[in-house]
Records
---
Amino acid sequence: MTPLNPVAARGALAALTVAAALLLGGCGKEITPASVTGGSDALTIQSTGSLPPMYLQEPYVAPVAVSGGAGPYSLRVTAGSLPPGITLNSAGLQLTGKPEKAGTYTFTLETTDSRLNSKNREFTVTVAALPPLTLAPTLPAGEIRGETRVPVTITHPRDVRAARVVWTLPEGARVTRVQLGDGNGSGLLFVKQTGQQLTVDLGFRAVPRSGARVLLVSVKPAKAVKLTSTGFTYEARDGTGKVIAGSPAAATPAPATPAAGTPSPTATPTPPVTPPTEPGTPPAETPGTPPPSGGGQ
């Protein structure tokens, strides 16, 4: 075997180095560990780091946004703990359940993609008691001069199945139309107007979502007028007819105590709103209650 000439060996090595450099330069991309994984964006997990609030015993569903990397993705808790009653759906990338205990909880979620890249993010969420149910009109900021549609929105509906809304409008404003909003589905609607006072009875066949517009009231003024919620009251009931919420002005005041020797007058109670009991069956009319003078569509 002929010994390798050192000079020739060095020349051959230099030629191979130049050839390799030319080959890599022609590819237009330097081979690095990062570029081997492809040109996809970096893996991220919900960059805002925030989740919707949780309320005791209220159904909760919150998706956890994952992007970049290469799907499919998975999730797991790597530190801290989820609120009792809440579970992590790894395949569906969401938190679900009904919170069972109030408090503030901090936990870390880790997402992993199909290339085994991973990303962690810490979350803090507070479980609190559910705020009270409210019904409120969304009013224009200034005066109205033409026909205006005013939505009435419900928040934190709990188990509401019926509600009565009473709204006293300013002089010169009249109601031209009352209709169900997008939160009622195929609910029930009964309308009565006496002078400037509008009374609407609502029946819900399913509990509306929080933030839904359950009622739309069209108001037309005779002249420029500003609408206010000062004369707006409501009362909400569950499926058994129990009052579960109401504005302070909607509460029936306690009768005054008569002086000694003064006969007590007979009080006429205000008929309650009766929730629907069966699909297609409207609330029963209360004897002595005048029928509605108009109806919504």
---
Amino acid sequence: MTRAEHLRDEIGARIDDTGFTAHGLHVRVGDDVATRRWTPDSREEIHSVCKAIAVLAVGIAADEGLVTFDTPVSELLPTAAAATLWQLLTMTSGIDFAYSETMMTDWPDLAAEFLSRPSRGRVFQYSNASTYTAMHALAQRTGDVEAYLRTRLFAPLGLADITWRRCPHGRVLGGEGIALRTDEMARLGLLLRDRGIFDARRLVSAGIVDAMHADWVTTGSDADGYRRYALAGWEGPGDAWRLHGAHGQLVIFAGDAVVTVSASDHGGADALAAFVAACASHSCGS
């Protein structure tokens, strides 16, 4: 039995025992892969895992000299807000903007509304509007972000046919809006584990990926797995780091292991992430 198969069986047993509503599980340890499904394999919304794709979009544009992470948003959009792309993507603009399912239609222009709000300084304030605004700003240099990524990221990952949901203005949602199968989300995980290389081709600079789990920002939370945030990545649980989308969409990194979960269980995701992180860290050390 490979390490990937052993880890898959451990996680699968835990899911069965706890009743966590998993849809799919993809485990990669080194070059070995093991999978399991609980529901038919289909594409489903990955929610905030999309924020990693938004970061990669800026990273690829930075590699091409179109922007830097330190580019002020005021150079890209008509705003006096003192925020950079880095601050929008690390949620440190300090702009308080609560999530709403109707946020894309509650204001004539969500990005303009977001940037008009006062900032509390360079403190952590998680908001989908922040990532959305970053993608709108980026598009001023790249053109349509989905089209820009089509040949640079999506096609190399075998995802040339995916679409990114849009607001009424036709802008990509940024922090959500992409649907992937479990194994497709796992390809994103492999790209990140291997520091920007996929199928022997570099898609983005290694430093961009490294920054997704470094230069941590303190969030003010005391909960394991939520104390520190970087560019789309959450530190923890334990020694792992992860991408974490609503309703249990998880990509967890521990050493040479990447565990990807598709689910519809928002309440049980943190406990499963902690179990996966502990098992994966042990597997990587064995």
---
Amino acid sequence: MGIAERKNRQKQALRERILDAARRIVMREGFAALSMRKIADAIEYSPATLYLHFASRDEIAQALCAEGYAQLLETFVPLAGIADPAERLKALGRAYVAFGVAHPETYRLIFMEDPSYTGAALGGAAKGKAVAGDGNGITASDEASGEAAAPEDDPGEAALHIMISALEELKAAGRLSASMDVAVWAEAFWANLHGIVALNLTCPVFPSAPLDTVVEVALGAWLGTSHATQPQSTKTTAGTRKKKSPDVRTESSEESEPEPDNEPAAQPSAKKSAKAANGVSVPAPRRKATSA
């Protein structure tokens, strides 16, 4: 190993130590606690040494965001092999929310701290959107093989391509409108997922239902198919109950009817027995004549 190569390895190793220390601080104390001095203390170097590798705290934050988004992409890549595009998108949605819940500080840093950090994480996503607008998205087979969505590629572009490809397949199969702009659809879908994660991280009263339930309802509203049948089955059940309820009322009324019928029947029999006790053989005509 030459001197130059050894120095490069040492430089790269120190860079990784800096990022590891910064990541631990962010995860433990939040991004607001991150400072060049605190990182330097953690790795036992002078702050001046850090500036040989990173120009500022923001540059470290951007590097952490890029790493975090690459980690998110790693959870997406295996899902690209799901055959049905709608089910693939649902799986991607679940993985996205799960990542935000499992790595809250990383998610905050990427998407909720500074727009420049998000831009650093997404990288060439805008280029991916342009490609998607031309209708030349990568195929599911390319994604499944990892050729187009490998973690080594730009994370933002690769993640977008996985989603765009599934939408293109839905559109080609007639399951999305032919006039639908899949790039706009993907952004709206992403915004919905981000809203769920952001509310879960910041709003103490959200969600009122289990988070998994909220996610499934959102996915069903967007992608329908199997999930869309759930609300229909619920309506059917409610309708069945409504149909059953008149039957129940009819049965209860029929059960209550014999009681009034028995009461009038008991009254004439009581009168007859009383009249028989008085020795009157033809009670009806005499009572009418008396009353008249």
---
Amino acid sequence: MELKGSAAYEDDQFFRNYMKRRHREESPNKIIEKPVMLKMIGDLVDKDILD
């Protein structure tokens, strides 16, 4: 079965593997993206966040 686009995340095995890789300590999200995003956001003290 070929998984395409966002529908791939509906497949249990695909999603479990994705989450396993996504949350590892050496994940690019943790070592590259998160620090950059936090720097861009700046100080959030006394600020409200709308999600």
